[in-house]
């Protein structure tokens, strides 16, 4: 990322010196666009009424058609608004004009939005794309989203979402890069680079917002917004790692999480915001609260009233208030009465103005006409990139007797309502996609195969059609069943206590099996599912996640073998929900699960994941051999031999793990330390090498101090986190220098 020049910094200081306290507080205020008029209840209540069925979608639509939108024009004119969430370039330009031309100091607005996995060209949800183990691809898709959104006036993405998440019941696992801190860090860095680094034109980059800082992914029992309780060393070694790396990469902004950390909600937590983020990690830009979070501090039980919540948030280092107007209402008095210092306000405003300067908003505040027209039709390279990401994200979970790939001229009965849906391939949080860009699975299959008949049969929330099942059984040589979750079943506020296939889909599968035809299960879902039954009964299972606009083509290409599956799981799949949280990098305990009853196990369920982190099959097979580990001054040189022992070309992700056998704190049974990807022809053999810097072999203790401890380590290599080769090595760390020592 480019630093501000001395002159730019000076300009920020000059501007700051001219601002009144009201104008400064205005910069710290992000307004939400509100819907007003025409009805007696609040907009939020109206949405609730529709959600719980008190009014129908049609009635809601009618009310909204007569309602007016409040864009806070008057406050913008007075310099009392710093940011808004808008995604229409014409509206963005109109509001920006008021800020730039009509407010006293002409400070531009910063328009933000949740662009989590694509703007117009929606690509796979993050948990899926992380499974490509290709950060370069993640960087490219992010850069594409940056260009598309900037052409609509959105210059600030509330992304990447980099909450490490171990509990698949939590609906937001869909938005992040999975359960592993190393993979999450590598992907976090890639996304920041993709969003922020192309400064060849002011139209090519946006500011990233890392979220949610921190620990949100560890909400108890996987229930969204729930309390979080964790040991410090777990926080330091897992949940903080991707944030630390992404701030180092130059991320401009960070969003604080709703949850409490050691009893203090992060919205008002000076340890999280000031000490860690700003002092230790060196965040240059600003921190924004999550939606309404400052107000919720009262309900949380940490603030007496809104005034108190605002004062605590400002003093904790919260620079911008998302959506509550509490700063706008109370911060001035808090400063005048000495409860919040002018320096605190100045620091926040300086950070916000610096990000606006870095974005080039003072020189390029508007969306140009050319930009507005640029994506009326999606460019071919955006379609191609969405397809590549979708294809590479698909994970083959099971393929008994090589049922897949399917022959092009086979008669295929395509089943499942999800197969014909456009909105269900898009995934939670996408807002700016267009129906005309989407390829359904039905369309993709019809393109790829010559004989496809579609029998809806049912879906995640439907009744089962016996007639369709019978016809599907009669027609096809094979049944391809597209089942799983609706988009609304993952994402925010979408936790599930039972993560087996929702609705009557197991019954549907049973009936399809009873037709006697082979069944391929193609899954569409936003979280790992508990697939114990399916893994026993169904011959072939393809994990398709929510892959975005090109999902239909991607699935069809993988089923036909035009493109071989190469994705891996970024998140472990439990056999049954009761195992949650299940994750590969757990500590051993003194009684690891074994045959004896008195070990850490269940009486009625497996201990281990059904499909572990890093897992994914191919249309070929790979054999690992000759793992070698050598110590070379400050590095370990690891090499392993990989042979394609099957009949087709395949691309494998070679994964390198480590275990610190004895340390001053118990360490995980395995920790991912690196990976490479390699494509091999049938019979071809290659040696894959990986260099592990010794400085990366340590861990943080409960005081947040990074420690490198001499001793025995096990190094593992393999195609997933469970099936690996192992080599032992003794390592000493004298003179290794790291930048991770914190007081
Ligand atoms: C979510 C954030 C999101 C924000 C703004 C919140 O409810 O937790 O992830 O960025 O809304 O839409």
Residue share in helix: 25-40%
Q: In whole angstroms, how far apart are the ends?
A: 28 Å
Q: Which sheet architecture does the biggest sheet show?
A: 8 strands, parallel
| Beta-strand share of residues | 15-25%
Bound molecule kinds, no repeats: beta-D-glucopyranose
Task: Walk me through this protein's architecture.
This protein has 743 residues and is α/β, with parallel strands linked by helices. Helix content is 31%, strand content 19%. It is built from 23 helices and 27 strands. It has an eight-stranded parallel sheet. A six-stranded mixed sheet has the order 13-18-17-16-14-15, with helices on both faces. A four-stranded antiparallel sheet has the order 22-21-26-27. Strand 4 (83-84), helix 6 (89-102) and strand 5 form a beta-alpha-beta unit. Helix 18 (380-393) packs across helix 23 (551-560). 52% of the residues are buried. The model has no long low-confidence stretch (mean pLDDT 96). Beta-D-glucopyranose is lined by residues 114, 158, 211, 290-291, 492. Beta-D-glucopyranose (BGC) binds next to loops.
